[in-house]
Every structure is written in structure tokens, then in C-alpha cells.
């Protein structure tokens, strides 16, 4: 099994964004990454990442096999 880590905007040395750090923006960005997957994925999220994982699963249920909240 493969795993990838997605770092949201404003973390990990990324540039600042003009449209703000809003949960819908994080979900949109994560959906862009999820679109690269070949099979349904297991999302793991902690704190705000958990909120993004839940939003992503609700918005794209066909791409998500499971959600793990920490």
C-alpha cells in the first residue's frame, strides 16, 4: 500500500495565499490532490485536517474508502 502526505496552504514552507485560509479552500485543494488517485483512498486527519477529511469525503464520496479521525 502506498501513502502520501498533503500539507495544506500556509504550512511546510508554502507561500501565502491571496484568497485566505478557509476550510472550503483546503477542501478544494485536497480534492485536486485526491483527483490524482487511481483508487478510493483512506483519509487520515487530525484537528483541522480531520475537518478537511470529513468535508472531502462528503464532497467526493466515490473517491474515499474510509476516514480516520485522530
Explain what this protein looks like in three dimensions.
With 70 residues, the protein is an alpha+beta fold. The chain is 34% helix and 16% strand. It has a two-stranded parallel ribbon with strand order 1-2. Helix 1 crosses helix 2. The chain is globular, with a radius of gyration of 12 Å. The two termini are 20 Å apart.
- Return residue spans where pLDDT drops below 50 for at least 5 consecutive residues: none
- Cα-atom radius of gyration: 12 Å
* Helicity, as a percent range: 25-40%
Proportion of β residues?
A: 15-25%
Structural class: alpha+beta
Order of helices and strands, N to C?
HEHE
Widest sheet: strand ordering: 1-2
How can the largest sheet be summarized?
2 strands, parallel
* Total count of helical runs of at least 4 residues: 2
The best one-word shape is globular
Global mean pLDDT: 85
Query: End-to-end distance, in Å?
Result: 20 Å
Strand tally, please? Answer: 2
